[in-house]
Amino acid sequence: MTTIKDIARAAGVSTATVSLALRHHPRISQETTRKIAALAKKMNYRPDPMLQALNKRRWRNVQRETYCNIAFVTWFPNEQKLFDDEFHGAAWKGAAQRAEAMGYAMRPFCVNTDPETQKRQVRKLLAQGVRGLLIGGNYKSIPRLHFDWSKFASITIGLNLKAPRFHTVRFDHRADMETACRELRHRKYKRVGFCVLRSVDIREEHVWRSTFLFQSEHEVFEHTSVKVLERTDQNITDWIKDETLDAVIFWDSYLLDSLIKQGLKIPEDVGFVSLRVGENGESGMIKDGTSLGARAFDLLNLQIQTGMWGIPEIATNLQVPAVWQDGKTLRPQISAKT
User: Fold this and answer.
1) What is the CATH number of the domain that holds 50?
2) Could you tell me if residue 111 is inside a domain?
3) 91 vs 75: CA distance, rounded Å
4) Rounded-to-10 torsion of CA 149, 154, 157, 160
5) How far is Cα 171 from Cα 293, in angstroms, rounded to an integer?
6) For the ranges 3-12, 36-45, 63-72, 108-117, which has the lowest average pLDDT?
7) How far apart, in whole angstroms, are the C-alpha atoms of residue 321 and residue 94?
8) What is residue 179's three-state secondary structure?
9) How do the residues of the chain divide into helix, strand and coil, expressed in percent and rounded to 5?
C-alpha cells in the first residue's frame, strides 16, 4: 500500500509537504499541490481514515500559530453595528471564539455592494492572507457578491446571500414552527394566527408560513389565519379581533409591545408566541446565535483542511433547531385529565 513517505520520496519533497498538499493547504503552491495530487493518483494512494481521524484529534488539541485568516463578511455599515446586533453580533462572537481556539485570526469585513469596489476588496483580502469566508450578512437579502470564489472556502450563516449558493448553517424554521404549534395545542388554543413581515417571509423562503399552512391543512386547529405585513407599524389588532384568534405566532418578539399599546392583554385576550424571543420573558423559541456561529466556523475549518475551495456543486444546509421557552405570554399547559 502506497504511503505518504513513498509519495514524498518519488516527488523529492518532505512528508510534511505531501501531507499539506493533499489537504490543499494554502502554504503549498498550486503547482506543487497539482504535482503531488497527480503523483498520488498515479501511485494509487488511498488515505487511512482511522489515521486521519487520529491526526484531526491531535490537531484540535494542540495550540497552533495562526496560518490562515478568516473574514466574517457582513453588510452592516461598520463593525460596531455588527457587534451591537443581537443575533449577528452573537454569531460573530461564537465564530470568533472558536476561530481563536483553533489558531485562526478572524476579523469583520464590511462589504460594499458596488461590484467594482467588491473586486478591490477581494484583492485586499487575498493580500491579507484571507482564505476563509464566513458570510453573515445582516437582515437584508443581498442578491450577489462579485468575488472570485475559487480563492476562498466559504460558509453562509442564514439565507441572506441568494447567489451563489454555499454550504449554509441556519436555524431550522420548520422544526421551530412545528414546536410552536405543538405547544399551542398542549394549551388547548384553537384559533391561531401567524403574522410575518413580507420581506422576512421572502428572505426565509416562506418556510415558516408553509409549515404553518401545512398545520392548517391537517386541521391541527379549528381555525387558522395568516397575516403578511408590508410594514412593521401596521395595525394588527383588527385582524386578531376579526378572526377571533386566541393565539398568534409572530416572527419576532418586538411586536409584543405593539399589541399591548393597541389595548390587548397578553395572554388574557390573546396568547403570544415569538419565533425569536427577546429578553422580556416571551413564550417562544430561543435562538442561540453564538452556537450557530461556532458551528458555522467548524464547517469552514473542515473545508479549509480538506481543500474545498470555490462554489460547491451541491450546496447543503445544516439546520439547527431552537429551544422552546415557556415564558409568560401563554396560558399554562392543560393536563390530559382536565
Assistant:
1) 1.10.260.40
2) yes
3) 14
4) 0
5) 11
6) 63-72
7) 17
8) helix
9) 40, 20, 40
C-alpha cell at position 173: 424554521
String of DSSP letters for 74-120? E-SSSHHHHHHSHHHHHHHHHHHHHHHHTT-EEEEEE--SSHHHHHH
On whether the CB atoms of residues 133 and 161 are closer than 8 A, the answer is no
- Measured in degrees and rounded to the nearest 5, phi and psi for residue 153 equal -95, 135
pLDDT one-digit tens code per residue, 141-187: 565 677 888 889 999 998 777 778 899 999 999 999 999 999 999 99
The parent domain of residue 97 ranges over 69-171+290-321
Distance between CA atoms of residues 317 and 7, nearest Å: 36
**Domain assignment present for 334:** no
Nearest to 107 by CA among 79, 87, 84: 79
Average pLDDT across the chain, whole number: 84
Grid coordinates in use for 96? 470568533
Closest CA relative to residue 117, chosen from 147, 74, 88, 82: 147
Q: Which of 56, 44, 42 is nearest to 3 (CA)?
A: 44
Rounded Cα gap, residues 39 and 8, in angstroms: 10
> Grid coordinates 446586533 are at which residue?
85
Question: Is position 338 within any domain?
Answer: no
Q: What's the CA gap between 120 and 130, in Å, rounded?
A: 14
C-alpha grid cell, residue 68: 490562515
Considering its fold, how many domains does the chain have in total? 3
175-211 pLDDT tens trace:
999 999 999 999 999 999 999 999 889 888 899 999 9
For 270, the 3-state DSSP assignment is: coil
Q: Rounded to an integer, what distance in angstroms lies between the CA atom of residue 329 and that of residue 33?
A: 59
Same domain, 118 and 128: yes
Task: State the number of CA atoms in the 13 A half-sphere of 331 facing the CB.
Answer: 15
What single letter denotes the amino acid at residue 110?
C
Indicate the pTM of the whole model: 0.72
**Residue 93 CA to its chain's centroid (Å):** 13
Helix or strand holding residue 302 (H, E): helix 289-306
